[in-house]
Amino acid sequence: MATEKILLGYGVVAIAGTPIGLTRGGSQFDVEREIRSIEADGDRGPVKGRQVIDTEVAKLTVNALEPFSASDMSKYYPGISVTTDVDDIMTSTLTIVEGDYNEVTWTGKTKDGKPVVITVENAMNLDNLEWKLEDKNEVVPSIGFTAHYDETTRDTPPWNVAFGL
User: Fold this and answer.
1) In degrees, to the nearest 5, what angle opens at C-alpha 14 toward C-alphas 105 and 77?
2) What distance in Å separates the CA atoms of residue 119 and residue 131, rounded to the nearest whole number?
3) What is the pTM (predicted TM-score) of this model?
4) Span 75-85, pLDDT tens digits
5) CB of 120 closer than 8 Å to CB of 13
6) Contact criterion met (CB below 8 Å) for 125 and 104
7) Which class for 24: exposed (0-12), middle (13-18), buried (19 or more C-beta within 10 A)?
8) By the number of CB atoms within 10 A of the CB, which of 6, 10, 20, 73 ranks highest?
9) Cα separation of 51 and 159, whole Å?
10) Could you report the per-residue pLDDT of 107-163, keeping only the tens digit for each?
11) What is the DSSP track for the chain?
12) Would you list the DSSP string of 10-54?
């Protein structure tokens, strides 16, 4: 039956294999592409076979309800340092390091129970650190993990979706 192939919207997001905890408002996976037509004199519009993909950027955005452990902040925000004295203190380092890049996955399933795994490789949150602090509500930051190409394999997209493993 066709309804068994429906992708259910809830799933577990993990950074480097560790689940991030509760979310609210779900997650969103986007692959933004810039496709350019190669134009020639006399063309009246796009011509089949003369398109190229100039850029392709994959992003997994998570609305994280439960990221607020000081020790985990550097997994969510690049260029962050946490020091422990009497209190845990988070501050910026103004430097991106190798450990700021992680594999981020969303694992869900179809209506008939087959797993679906979205993976963004070498992912780093490029969004701003924004926490909405309001009365009678919880902070639910939107954390956008953008996949990054590897310098040695720049023609290999750093994302994939595995269906029914």
Assistant:
1) 100
2) 26
3) 0.89
4) 899 999 988 88
5) no
6) no
7) exposed
8) 20
9) 22
10) 999 888 899 999 999 999 999 998 888 899 888 899 999 999 999 999 999 999 999
11) -GGGGPBPS--EEEETTEE---EEEEEEEEEEEEEEE---TT-SS--TT-EEEEEEEEEEEEEESS---GGGHHHHSTTEEEEESSSEEEEE-S---GGG-EEEEEEEEBTTS-EEEEEEEEEEE-S-------TTS----EEEEE----GGGTTS-SEEEEE--
12) --EEEETTEE---EEEEEEEEEEEEEEE---TT-SS--TT-EEEE
Q: With contact defined as beta carbons under 8 Å apart, do 46 and 37 qualify?
A: yes
Q: How far apart are CA 23 and CA 6, in angstroms?
A: 21
Q: Which two tokens stand for residue 132?
A: 């909405």
Length of the chain: 165
